[in-house]
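Long-time lurker, first post.

We've been arguing in lab meeting about whether S-adenosylmethionine would sit comfortably in this protein at all. Half the group thinks yes, half thinks no, and nobody has a model to point at. So I'm putting the question to the forum: if I give you the sequence and the SMILES, can you give me back a predicted structure of the complex? Inputs are below. Any interpretation is welcome too.
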Amino acid sequence: MFDYDEEAERYDASRGGEARAAAAASAVLGLIPEGTVTLLDAACGTGIVTRRLAEADLDVTGADAAYGMLRRATERVPGRVVLADIRQLPFPCASFDAVSAIWLLHLLDDAEKVVAEAARVLRPGGVFVATVDKAASHDVGSDIDAVMAPRPRRAARDRSDLVASYADRHALLPAGRASFRGCGQGRAPARAAADVRRGWYTLLPPGEPLTEKLASRLEQLPGQHVPRQEPEFKLRAFRKPGPVPRPGPELGSGPLPSPTSSPGPPTDA
Ligand SMILES: C[S@@+](CC[C@H](N)C(=O)[O-])C[C@H]1O[C@@H](n2cnc3c(N)ncnc32)[C@H](O)[C@@H]1O
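Top reply:
Settle the argument with this. Predicted structure of the protein with S-adenosylmethionine, as tokens:
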């Protein structure tokens, strides 16, 4: 995984900035039921999406494990972020009406733990929304993708059918799909070649014969600096059985759910 403490400086600008954040937030909002008040943005990063969710009148909490990312999130949603591992959340069971996880599951070998924790901290009727198939979304059928086709790939940890099976194991029901378009994230050959040489593609170490071969083929493509199509990122939503959350006087105005020193039992225990 990237060192997100180091990445924090350049994260927003290199991931589509505010336009991407607006598109992602809007896709999340389209999947959560009316009446949702409290939302945990799991792996909130710099808070660029979290802020948009808070602006939609949700009582938002952000959580992330990287201090560097979280420092920026604190500026965007002051007092609403916590340093935490999403696989072991410091919140009691049934604390939130919704949980979002944008671009998290593809990073983790044990992504099921995120789904289990989301199921645990959701109130009955609450919804978990997560991106799926992240790496595959970058393959847009371009000439760059054709050059890169022979590269070895690691099995995707956020494959949609896998995530759906995790949800099923933790008693979450399918509750919708959505997508959002990247912004400025379409690849150009020159940049892709540089990224390949830098070793940014998993399983293509710098200096290896295949790495060099693919990089030099990319450098022969036309339109070296012309970005190809933007990726389309997919979201899946899953609902915890129970009544749909309704706004009430006890919700929305209270303090942050108090962190617990250790996570509670999983819902399926
Ligand atoms: C690609 S960024 C996405 C950030 C944000 N959701 C967004 O869309 O801008 C991935 C984030 O996941 C965080 N992360 C990775 N593993 C984590 C874990 N186990 N617990 C909490 N945060 C984690 C990283 O620190 C990073 O901020």
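For your lab meeting: Residues 71 and 184 are 25 Å apart (CA to CA). The first helix runs from residue 4 to 14. Whichever side wins, do check it experimentally.
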